[in-house]
């Protein structure tokens, strides 16, 4: 069932778990992710970031995401990740995405407020929810001088923009971590105490179990995972190819679906979103 971001995060916010938001670049990713969510009766977010458009054009991926969501027996939100402009957000809204992230984190504070507010005004008119970011989540290996989300600024930002979810920077980085990061949970607690809305953790791949648990028990309701899925697929393909390197045809499609399902299953369990979904397709003979 296709749902919006605020619909899918409401229960997570009240009951302290997180919904996984998985960047899916292929049919195999989407099928594996949905299979995992249905098996575990978990809500799930399918998302695509603007930087991924060259590999997976949004106009081609949107029908796939939306069809998977509508057919699914669990709640599925279809989300634009890191939209870099109002125009990209409007394209996603027109395609039927149920939420968009506008990423103005690199802008000066006032400009980020103004741009996020404008995206929210337009998205709301179309019934679409908005996530925005304050502070800088960098890329691992590139940017270590990240700026953490400021608590006072976060209050102003949330109030003035009217967003539905706030992405925070607490020491998290995108991509493959060389060393396991140490998140600043104290800063997260302060941001959570000052704001009621669901908080979002970017850069989920490679985070320690302890940090994941501390996050979901202190206001993080959405966790983004991208790198772990592609690395999981790479690993399983390598293993499969090594088994019978001379085989004429190796059906890698199923390997990719299985690897995606495996990674998503692991994260759903870590985020404690399993068994949270109502069974939307009523069982024929009752449960
Ligand atoms: P990772 O690739 O580190 O999992 O980050 C995903 C992300 O935050 C997408 O917005």
Description:
Helix content is 46%, strand content 17%. It is an alpha/beta fold. The protein has one domain (2-271): TIM Barrel (Alpha-Beta Barrel), CATH 3.20.20.70. The strands form two sheets. An eight-stranded parallel barrel has the order 2-3-4-5-6-8-10-11, surrounded by eight helices. Strand 2 (19-23), helix 2 and strand 3 (44-49) form a beta-alpha-beta unit. The longest helix has 20 residues, at 252-271. It is globular, with a radius of gyration of 18 Å. The structure holds 1,3-dihydroxyacetonephosphate. 1,3-dihydroxyacetonephosphate is lined by residues 23, 49, 81-82, 174-175, 202-205, 224-228.
Could you list some keywords that capture this structure?
287 residues; alpha/beta; TIM Barrel; eight-stranded parallel beta barrel; two-stranded parallel sheet; 10 helices; globular; disordered C terminus; binds 1,3-dihydroxyacetonephosphate
């Amino acid at each position: 069932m296709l749902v919006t971001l605020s619909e899918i995060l409401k229960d997570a916010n009240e009951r302290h778990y997180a919904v996984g938001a998985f960047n899916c670049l292929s049919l195999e990713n989407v099928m594996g992710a949905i299979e995992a969510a249905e098996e575990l009766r978990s809500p799930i977010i399918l998302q695509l970031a603007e930087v991924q458009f060259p590999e997976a054009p949004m106009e081609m991926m949107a029908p796939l995401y939306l069809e998977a969501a509508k057919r699914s027996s669990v709640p599925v939100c279809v989300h634009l990740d890191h939209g870099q402009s109002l125009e990209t957000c409007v394209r996603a809204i027109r395609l039927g995405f149920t939420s968009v992230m506008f990423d103005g984190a690199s802008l000066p504070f006032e400009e980020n407020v103004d741009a996020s507010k404008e995206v929210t005004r337009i998205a709301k008119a179309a019934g679409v929810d908005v996530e925005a970011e304050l502070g800088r989540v960098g890329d691992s290996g590139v940017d270590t001088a990240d700026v953490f989300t400021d608590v006072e600024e976060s209050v102003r930002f949330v109030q003035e923009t009217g967003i539905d979810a706030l992405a925070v920077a607490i020491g998290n980085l995108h991509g493959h971590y060389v060393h396991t990061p140490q998140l600043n949970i104290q800063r997260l607690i302060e941001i959570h105490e000052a704001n009621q809305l669901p908080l979002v953790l970017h850069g989920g791949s490679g985070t320690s179990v302890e940090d994941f648990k501390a996050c979901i028990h202190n206001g993080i309701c959405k966790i983004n995972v991208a790198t772990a899925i592609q690395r999981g697929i790479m690993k399983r393909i390598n293993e499969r190819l090594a088994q019978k390197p001379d085989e004429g045809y190796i059906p890698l499609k199923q390997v990719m679906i299985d690897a995606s399902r495996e990674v998503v299953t692991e994260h759903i369990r870590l985020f404690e979103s399993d068994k949270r979904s109502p069974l939307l397709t009523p069982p024929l003979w009752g449960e």
